[in-house]
Write a structure and sequence with these properties.
mainly alpha; MetI-like fold; 75% helix; 0% strand; globular
């Protein structure tokens, strides 16, 4: 018992340190968001929040169209999250349970695309978006992100290990078509994994900066991350103003995690045990 207690004590200690390491940057961002640049850069640094947060938050909303930017981010990230959950599940189902010529070779190509850096696709992707007339529109952010190679790989592995071929064969004998098998049998069984994938897609799209920075031109089309960049001028950075914008842009993710964090962890653990 003593040895077990000692292991449990060290485990909680490590978890506590890891938790502090994850939470402290958020706390420090809030501290800076309540002070000014001079206070944020002095040594030793201030570790207690100041009283300037509401003033700086007001400046954020008057300097850039921040509310519109948050709405744009919600539209883009929500669409991409739903697209990841549905489209990657469809593709994963096809690769896992359907038989068609070139299936393995095509899946290998999908997996190999994960080795290509995202930056290499920026120029050809921009040329396609420009030819479609989508520059400075939200669909330029939504459509390229509706599915991903990682998402297809994730769902393919989950579907392959969760659903037996006998269940699908029985459904076909009963007269179910491919779409009915996917929507009524396969997707409900892997819904936790699809939910986790959708959340990962949502968070990735919310935090994306490079592609929106290239494609968006007008302030009313800005996402939250581009609006934060617009708070900085070319010669100096008001750290308090910038961190206020960053904290306000992080709040929706915190609220999201409070409501769905337990379900997200359960979905990840479910996939881990079944994998």
């Amino acid at each position: 018992m003593k040895k077990a207690d000692r292991v449990r004590w060290w485990t909680y200690l490590l978890l506590g340190v890891a938790t502090l390491a994850c939470v402290f940057p958020l706390y420090w961002m809030f501290v800076v968001a309540t002070t000014d640049t001079a206070t944020a850069t002095k040594l030793p640094p201030e570790i207690l929040p100041g009283g300037n947060f509401f003033h700086l938050a007001g400046l954020v909303f008057t300097t850039v169209p921040f509310v519109r930017s948050i709405i744009n981010s919600l539209v883009v990230a929500g669409s991409i999250g739903i697209g990841h959950a549905l489209l990657c599940s469809l593709a994963g189902f096809a690769f896992a349970k359907l038989r068609f010529p070139g299936r393995n070779a095509l899946f290998l190509v999908v997996v190999l695309t994960m080795t290509v850096p995202t930056q290499l696709a920026v120029i050809p992707q921009y040329m396609i978006i420009s030819s479609l007339g989508w520059v400075d529109t939200l669909q330029a952010l939504i459509v390229p992100g509706l599915a991903s190679a990682f998402g297809i790989f994730w769902m393919r592995q989950h579907l392959a290990t969760t659903i037996s071929d006998e269940i699908l064969q029985a459904a076909r004998i009963d007269g179910a078509g491919t779409w009915q098998i996917f929507w009524r049998i396969a997707f409900p069984l892997v819904r936790p994994a699809a939910f986790v994938l959708g959340l990962l897609g949502f968070v990735t799209a919310w935090n994306d900066f490079l592609w929106p920075f290239i494609v968006l031109k007008s302030p009313e089309m800005y996402t939250a991350q581009i609006a934060i960049k617009a708070l900085q001028n070319s010669y100096s950075i008001d750290l308090g103003l910038a961190m206020s914008g960053s904290f306000l842009a992080t709040l929706p993710l915190i609220v999201l995690f409070v409501f769905v964090g337990r379900r997200m962890v359960a979905g990840i653990m479910d996939g881990a045990f079944k994998g």
